C-alpha cells in the first residue's frame, strides 16, 4: 500500500515535470510559434511487404516514391514549409496481420508516426485500420483490395487511396460483359481476397446482363491448374475469370495457355500488377484484359514522373508506387494547409478534397466513406513492347463515378 | 464419361511429374537415411537456373535439361561434402534441421537476387498446344513431361536394381559393415548418390519451368506434396515413389473435379489412411517404420 502511494506520487511528479518541459521549452511541440507539429516533426510510416510476394509490387520502392514526395514538398515550399523536418520510417509486415498490428502500434507509439501508408494484404490492412481508430492517428491504405476499409470496417482516420475489389469488378467484369463476353466461369483462390473478388465479379457480370455458370474455388496456394481449367471450360463460356494473385496467377495463366481454352475464350484477370506481366513475359499474357488504377506510360505527366522514378530504382513504377507518392504528397499538402499534423485537422483538410495529380485524375476524397475515388483504366496486355515495361494498351478510361459506384451505406463515420 | 477420362489423364500426367520430383527424395533417404527437406529448394533452383540460362545465355529448354542436372549434381556433392556428411552419424533429425535451414537460405538468396515476382519461361518449340482425341484433350507439354518422367524413373529403377553400381549402393545401405568386409569402400558411394538425388530434384525443376511459376517460393509448398508421395509410397522405396506419385496425381485430379476446395486435403487424408493401415507405406520396408 505504502509503496503504491510512493509510485503514484512519483508518477505525478514525473508527468508534471514532463508537462512543464513541454510547455516551457522554447521549441515545445504545442507552443512553438513556427509550427503546430507534434514532436516538432512529421513522421511518415511505410508499412508493407518488404520481403514476400508483394515486395516487387509495393515494397521498398514505395519508400523511394514517398521520399520523392518529401523532396518535392520541400522544394515546393522551401522556407515556408510547415513540416521542416520530415522522417520516413519503414517496416516489413511479412503479409501477416498480427505483425502488421504490432508494427503499426510501434510506429504510432514509439516512432511517433503521424501517418501510416500502404499496407498491402487485406487482413493486415484491416488490423492497422483498427489501430488507427484506437490511437486517433491517420492511416492511408494503398495496396490492399478489401472494400471493408471503406465499408463495414471504415473509420474516421482511415482513407483508401488507390483501388478496391469493387473497382476491379466494375471495371473488368462490367466492360468485358458489355463488350459481348456474356457467359463466365470464375476460378478463385479459396481465401478472403479470392472469395471477395468472386462475389464482386459475379455481381458485376450479372449487373451488366451476363451470367456466371460456375464459380470454382481452388486451394491456396496451388500450382497444378490443369483440372481446374477443364472444369472452367465446361459449358463453353465466353470468358474465364481468374481471381488469383502472385504465383497462383502465373501458374494459372501458364497452364491456361497450354490448355484448349487458349484462343477460344477470353481470359479476364481480377487483379494484375505490371510486375506480374514483367515476370511472366508479354507473350504469356498478351490479350488479357484487366483494370489498372494507373499506368506509367498513359500520358506525358505520368511518364515524366516514371522517368524520375526509374532514375532512382531502375524499374518503372507500379500503380501502388505512384499512389504512395500521391498519398504522401497530399498528406504533406494537408499539413501545410492546416499548419499542424493534428490528425483531426488533417482529416478535415482531406475530406471532400478534389485532387488532380500524377496519380489521381478527377480524384475526390469522398467524405461519406473515405474512399479516394478517381478515374481508372481498362487495360489490355500488348503482344509486343516497343521499350522495356511498355506492356499495356489502355482501352478506355473508366470515370470515377462508374468505377467506384455510390458510397457504401455500411460505412458509418462517427 | 469423357470428362472422367479427361480427369484421369490429367491426374496421370501430373502423377508422372510427381513421381520424378519425389524420386530424388526417395533415393537419398533410401541410401543415406537423410530426410532432405531442401529437396523443394533444389527443385526451385533447377527451375531458376533454367530461367537464368535462357535469359542470360539464350540456352533453352533442351540444353537446360542436360546442363541443370549436372550443375545440381555438383551442388549436391558440395552440400554432402561440406554439410550433410558431418551429421550422418547423429540422429536423422540433425540433417532434417540442417536441410530445413538450408532451404531458408536458398529461398532468401534467390529472392534477394531475382526478386519475388518470378522469372519468365517459354514452352519449348513443338510442345505447345494440345493433343485432342474426340472430346478428350491434353496439353502436349504435360504428355511429354509425364512420358519423360516415367522414362527417367524406370532408368533409375534399373540402375539401382540391375547394375553393379546399384548392387553396391543397395548393399552399402542394408549392411554397411558386411559390405565393407567384402572390400568395398562404402563411403565413396555416399557423395555421388546424394549428388544424384539433388540432380533429380533439379531435373524436376527444369521440367516444371515451362508450366509453373518460377519463384523463390515454388518449392515451399511443393515439398509438402512430395513428402506425402514418399510417405504413401514408403520412405526410401523407388517403386513406391513412382506408384504413389501417380496415385497422388489421380486423387488430386478427382478431388479438383468433384470437390475442388478439398483437392489438396484429399491427398493428406489418403496419406493418413495409408500410414494407419501400413505404417511403412505401400512399398516401404518394415524396419524403417
Automatic annotation (TrEMBL), chain A:
Keywords: Signal. Residues 42-383 form the Leucine-binding protein domain. Gene3D superfamilies: 3.40.50.2300. SUPFAM superfamilies: Periplasmic binding protein-like I. Residues 1-21 form the signal peptide. Coiled coil: none annotated. InterPro entries: BCAA_transport (IPR051010), Leu-bd (IPR028081), Peripla_BP_I (IPR028082). PANTHER family: LEUCINE-SPECIFIC-BINDING PROTEIN (PTHR30483), PERIPLASMIC BINDING PROTEIN OF ABC TRANSPORTER FOR NATURAL AMINO ACIDS (PTHR30483:SF6). Belongs to the leucine-binding protein family. This is Branched-chain amino acid ABC transporter substrate-binding protein. It comes from Intrasporangium oryzae NRRL B-24470.
UniProtKB/TrEMBL annotation, chain B:
GO terms for molecular function: transmembrane transporter activity. One of its GO terms (cellular component) is plasma membrane. InterPro entries: ABC_transp_permease (IPR001851), BCAA_transport_permease (IPR052157). It is a multi-pass membrane protein. Its main location: membrane. One of its GO terms (biological process) is amino acid transport. The chain crosses the membrane at residues 12-32, 61-79, 86-107, 141-160, 189-210, 222-248, 255-277. Keywords: Amino-acid transport, Cell membrane, Membrane, Transmembrane, Transmembrane helix, Transport. It is found in: Cell membrane. It holds the Pfam family BPD_transp_2. Belongs to the binding-protein-dependent transport system permease family. LivHM subfamily. This is ABC transporter permease. It comes from Intrasporangium oryzae NRRL B-24470.
Amino acid at each position: 500500500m505504502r509503496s503504491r502511494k510512493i509510485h503514484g506520487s512519483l508518477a505525478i511528479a514525473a508527468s508534471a515535470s514532463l508537462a512543464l518541459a513541454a510547455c516551457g521549452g522554447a521549441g515545445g511541440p504545442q507552443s512553438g510559434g513556427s509550427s503546430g507539429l507534434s514532436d516538432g516533426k512529421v513522421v511518415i510510416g511505410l508499412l508493407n511487404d518488404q520481403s514476400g510476394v508483394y515486395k516487387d509490387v509495393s515494397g521498398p520502392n514505395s519508400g523511394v516514391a514517398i521520399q520523392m514526395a518529401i523532396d518535392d514538398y520541400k522544394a515546393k515550399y522551401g522556407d515556408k514549409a510547415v513540416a521542416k523536418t520530415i522522417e520516413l520510417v519503414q517496416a516489413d509486415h511479412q503479409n501477416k496481420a498480427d505483425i502488421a498490428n504490432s508494427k503499426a502500434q510501434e510506429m504510432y507509439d514509439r516512432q511517433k508516426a503521424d501517418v501510416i501508408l500502404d499496407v498491402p494484404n487485406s487482413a493486415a490492412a484491416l488490423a492497422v485500420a483498427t489501430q488507427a481508430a484506437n490511437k486517433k492517428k491517420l492511416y492511408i491504405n494503398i495496396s490492399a483490395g478489401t472494400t471493408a476499409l471503406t465499408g463495414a470496417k471504415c473509420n474516421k482516420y482511415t482513407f483508401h487511396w488507390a483501388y478496391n475489389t469493387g473497382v476491379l469488378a466494375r471495371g473488368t467484369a462490367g466492360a468485358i460483359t458489355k463488350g459481348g463476353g456474356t457467359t463466365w466461369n470464375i476460378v478463385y483462390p479459396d481465401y478472403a481476397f479470392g472469395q471477395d473478388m468472386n462475389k464482386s465479379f459475379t455481381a458485376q457480370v450479372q449487373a451488366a446482363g451476363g451470367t456466371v455458370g460456375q464459380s470454382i474455388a481452388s486451394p491456396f496456394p496451388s500450382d497444378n491448374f490443369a483440372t481446374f481449367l477443364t472444369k472452367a471450360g465446361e459449358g463453353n463460356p465466353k470468358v474465364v475469370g481468374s481471381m488469383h494473385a502472385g504465383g497462383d496467377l502465373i501458374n494459372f495463366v501458364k497452364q491456361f495457355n497450354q490448355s484448349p481454352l487458349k484462343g477460344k475464350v477470353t481470359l479476364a484477370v481480377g487483379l494484375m500488377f505490371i510486375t506480374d506481366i514483367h515476370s511472366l513475359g508479354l507473350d504469356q499474357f498478351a490479350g488479357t484484359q484487366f483494370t489498372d488504377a494507373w499506368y506509367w506510360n498513359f500520358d506525358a505527366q505520368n511518364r515524366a514522373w516514371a522517368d524520375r522514378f526509374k532514375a532512382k530504382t531502375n524499374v518503372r513504377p507500379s500503380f501502388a508506387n505512384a499512389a504512395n507518392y500521391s498519398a504522401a504528397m497530399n498528406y504533406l499538402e494537408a499539413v501545410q494547409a492546416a499548419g499542424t499534423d493534428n490528425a483531426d485537422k488533417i482529416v478535415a483538410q482531406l475530406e471532400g478534397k478534389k485532387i488532380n495529380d500524377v496519380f489521381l485524375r478527377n480524384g475526390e476524397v469522398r467524405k461519406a466513406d473515405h474512399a479516394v475515388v478517381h478515374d481508372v483504366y481498362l487495360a489490355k496486355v500488348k503482344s509486343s513492347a516497343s521499350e522495356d515495361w511498355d506492356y499495356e494498351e489502355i482501352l478506355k478510361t473508366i470515370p470515377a463515378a462508374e468505377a467506384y459506384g455510390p458510397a457504401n451505406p455500411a460505412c458509418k463515420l462517427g | 464419361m469423357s470428362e472422367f477420362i479427361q480427369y484421369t489423364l490429367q491426374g496421370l500426367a501430373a502423377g508422372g511429374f510427381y513421381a520424378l520430383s519425389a524420386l530424388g527424395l526417395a533415393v537419398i533417404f533410401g541410401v543415406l537415411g537423410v530426410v532432405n527437406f531442401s529437396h523443394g529448394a533444389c527443385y526451385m533452383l533447377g527451375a531458376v537456373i533454367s530461367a537464368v540460362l535462357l535469359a542470360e545465355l539464350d540456352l533453352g529448354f533442351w540444353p537446360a535439361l542436360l546442363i541443370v542436372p549436372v550443375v545440381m549434381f555438383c551442388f549436391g556433392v558440395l552440400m554432402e561434402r561440406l554439410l550433410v556428411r558431418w551429421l550422418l552419424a547423429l540422429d536423422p533429425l540433425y540433417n532434417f534441421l540442417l536441410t530445413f535451414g538450408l532451404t531458408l537460405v536458398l529461398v532468401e538468396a534467390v529472392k534477394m537476387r531475382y526478386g519475388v515476382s518470378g522469372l519468365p519461361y517459354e514452352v519449348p518449340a513443338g510442345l505447345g498446344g494440345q493433343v485432342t482425341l474426340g472430346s478428350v484433350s491434353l496439353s502436349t507439354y504435360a504428355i511429354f513431361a509425364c512420358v519423360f518422367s516415367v522414362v527417367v524413373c524406370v532408368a533409375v529403377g534399373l540402375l539401382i536394381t540391375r547394375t553393379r553400381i546399384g548392387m553396391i549402393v543397395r548393399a552399402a545401405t542394408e549392411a554397411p559393415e558386411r559390405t565393407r568386409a567384402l572390400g568395398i569402400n562404402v563411403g565413396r558411394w555416399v557423395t555421388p548418390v546424394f549428388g544424384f538425388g539433388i540432380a533429380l530434384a533439379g531435373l524436376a525443376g527444369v521440367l516444371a519451368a515451362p508450366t509453373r511459376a518460377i519463384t523463390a517460393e515454388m518449392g515451399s509448398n511443393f515439398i509438402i506434396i512430395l513428402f506425402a508421395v514418399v510417405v504413401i509410397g514408403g520412405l526410401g522405396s523407388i517403386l513406391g515413389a513412382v506408384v504413389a506419385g501417380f496415385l497422388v496425381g489421380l486423387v488430386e485430379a478427382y478431388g479438383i473435379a468433384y470437390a475442388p476446395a478439398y483437392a489438396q486435403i484429399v491427398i493428406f487424408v489418403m496419406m493418413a489412411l495409408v500410414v494407419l493401415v501400413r505404417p511403412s507405406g505401400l512399398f516401404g520396408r518394415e524396419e524403417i517404420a
